[in-house]
Write a sequence for this structure.
């Protein structure tokens, strides 16, 4: 056997061994069914590959992730850059509650799949999963775009680059979670030549925002910067972008629809009634309005009932001399204030009902003088 033939056989054997090892690594990956919260706040389930912190480092010292679903279930850390590989598609990472993924990279952006691989980050029901990314370049730099739907995401750039979070000319969308971007000197926290859409969650961008910034929250809500300023849906002006730089933005009711002054709340529009209904479901924040007064600030027409058997209204409802018209199907048996507490809700002086084309209209004239009828089981104070 010639020397050339021996070398050929040796190389072929080595290649075969590498293929077997690669296949073994792929087969060793653990895939599990996990839950996550989607962009609309709904819980979904998907089969995802569990990230362990021991993924293979490939070409150019990258950890290459194929398009698909991954989950972080424990505390894991990396010092190598993340990139994409294989067919184009979104790389989806779920941050399980109580878990943390830490990426700390030097001389490269830390998480930077190419424009073939958009990056999406999700949390679970409690939203306590964490992604902490640090680099002396850009921390999170998915050239295909970035969507954050949940979890606690912290991106820090300690040197130069295009900011802590940068998506080239692709969109950056934040629908939920807690996002903090801390840039190096003379750069922005969140930057794209596309559009930055703030659609939910708590967002802080030290160094500000570079690119078009649009607020796209559910109707009736706005962002508050903690300084008395609110930002409703629409594209922010340059002055507004400057004003929110470094501020902690939290979602709050839009005062044009549902406003608060101390222990007094006012419903200004039908959209504001929807915010009031949402608030009744949030016992932790509003405590069912116990000890508070809610005033109807205008004549409005609604189709949604306020409260439920476990989220009843325990404050004082002042009609303010205005009219609340409630439209609902004939199969519905509840009025708009069905679950208000009997000793505290001053809402209706009269109610008229009639049936027309399958719909019943209940009109409540509310001079704030008489208590509304409600089930005897409704408590007057939270249990």
């Amino acid at each position: 056997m010639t020397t050339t033939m021996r070398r050929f056989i040796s190389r072929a054997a080595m290649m075969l061994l590498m293929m077997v090892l690669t296949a073994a690594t792929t087969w060793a990956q653990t895939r599990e069914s996990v839950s996550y919260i989607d962009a609309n706040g709904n819980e979904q389930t998907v089969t995802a590959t569990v990230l362990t912190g021991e993924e293979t480092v490939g070409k150019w010292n990258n950890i290459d992730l194929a398009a698909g679903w991954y989950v972080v279930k424990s505390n894991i850390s990396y010092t190598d850059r993340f990139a994409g590989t294989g067919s184009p598609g979104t790389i989806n990472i779920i941050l399980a509650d109580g878990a943390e993924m830490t990426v700390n990279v030097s001389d490269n952006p830390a998480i930077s799949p190419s424009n073939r691989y958009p990056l999406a980050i999700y949390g679970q029901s409690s939203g306590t999963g964490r992604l902490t990314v640090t680099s002396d370049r850009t921390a999170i730099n998915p050239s295909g775009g970035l969507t954050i739907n949940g979890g606690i995401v912290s991106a820090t750039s300690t040197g130069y680059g295009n900011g802590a979070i940068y998506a080239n000319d692709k969109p950056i969308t934040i629908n939920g979670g807690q996002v903090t971007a801390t840039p190096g000197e003379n750069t922005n926290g969140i930057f794209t030549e596309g559009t930055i859409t703030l659609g939910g969650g708590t967002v802080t961008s030290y160094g500000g925002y570079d690119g078009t910034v649009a607020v796209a929250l559910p109707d009736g809500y706005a962002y508050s910067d903690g300084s008395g300023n609110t930002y409703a849906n629409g594209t922010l002006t340059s002055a507004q972008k400057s004003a929110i730089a470094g501020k902690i933005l939290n979602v709050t009711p839009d005062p044009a629809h549902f406003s608060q002054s101390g222990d007094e709340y006012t419903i200004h529009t039908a959209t504001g009634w929807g915010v009031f209904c949402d608030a009744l479901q949030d016992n932790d924040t509003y405590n069912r309005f116990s000890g508070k007064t809610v005033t109807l600030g205008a004549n409005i027409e609604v189709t949604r009932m306020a409260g439920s058997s476990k989220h009843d209204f325990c404050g004082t409802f002042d009609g303010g001399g205005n009219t609340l018209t409630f439209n609902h199907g004939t199969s519905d048996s509840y009025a708009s204030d069905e679950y208000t507490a009997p000793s505290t809700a001053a809402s209706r002086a009269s109610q008229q009902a009639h049936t027309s084309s399958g719909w019943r209209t209940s009109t409540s004239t509310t001079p704030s003088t008489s208590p509304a009828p409600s089930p005897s089981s409704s408590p007057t104070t939270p249990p």
About this structure: The mean pLDDT is 83. Helices lie at 3-27, 238-244, 270-280, 283-286. The two ends are 89 Å apart (CA to CA). The CA atoms of residues 4 and 10 lie 10 Å apart.
